[in-house]
Design goal:
Bound molecules: uridine-5'-diphosphate, magnesium ion
Amino acid sequence: MEEAGFKILSVVMPVYNEKDNIEECLERLNSVLTGLGSSFEVICVDDGSTDGTNEILSVLAKKYPYMRVLQFKKNFGQTAALSAGFDHAKGDLIVTLDSDLQNKPEDIPALIKAMGAGYDVVCGWRRKRRDKLITRRIPSRIANSIISFVTGIKLHDYGCTLRAYRAELVKQVKLYGEMHRFIPALLGWNGAVIAEVEVDHAARTRGRSKYGILRTFKVILDLVTVKLLTSYSTKPIYMFGGPGLILLFFGFISFLIVAYRAILLHRLSATPLIFIMVVLFISGIQMVLTGLLAEINIRTFYEAQNKKIYIMKNKIHP
Ligand code: UDP
Ligand code: MG
């Protein structure tokens, strides 16, 4: 830790219905962290578990004094859980990992070592990922290529939670929806230096995955939001003006065609094609813009009130 230039490590773990995994996870984490020989804390964010995970966490918090538990009132999602962890972390280095043992706690020292080379973010890359091929690995490959292309921040594995962040940077990021995967891109756009480290990945042996194929679509929609908001939020005239000009251009073409037919060909009947084209264009663009306006609205709503995207039920060692 000290060689890497950090004083305190905060490990942030979202936990949702992981009663069969959490104990072993914390035990292995304990051996890894005590081996580091520097101060650390583990923040378990219980994302509204209903299977008794919270009771197990309360017991474990007595065993491990460095452990802090944040209990959500209900299931707010992995992004909200990570966000709460970042808000509460006291360390200058934050490591995030899943609590289902698919990420291996033993990989943490490699991330810290890489951070020591002066990076702001080190992302795990599950090169040999042990998940279902059709519903998880293939969609994930496609999503990783699209995200890398659109954001310009090239990573092999946007889906891996095992990552290390310089705390002061990641604490500034505002997260919404399912956006934790985009943190490296959001930071990278602001100049953060990012590295990738290959990490092990295990198949889930206990409990169930909380996600399916549907997540890929959510990820793509989140990508659109992230890209549009960061690229255009400070210059909305490009966003609104561009499509506006295109609309005017098509309107003008339609006008020319209609005028040509009326004046030179003396045909005054309406042409349905132009009508349909204009309607499609207007409604499509209106929908995108309405979505964007709604997104901006929701952000003002949260930020003006300084509202968190989660509600806490209880905290142990806050
Ligand atoms: N998780 C969470 N809230 C949720 C869904 C998941 O805190 O709403 C946690 C879950 O306990 C696990 C991690 O996020 O530690 C990753 O979830 P999961 O293993 O289901 O995702 P997968 O590995 O299948 O992508
Ligand atoms: Mg998992």
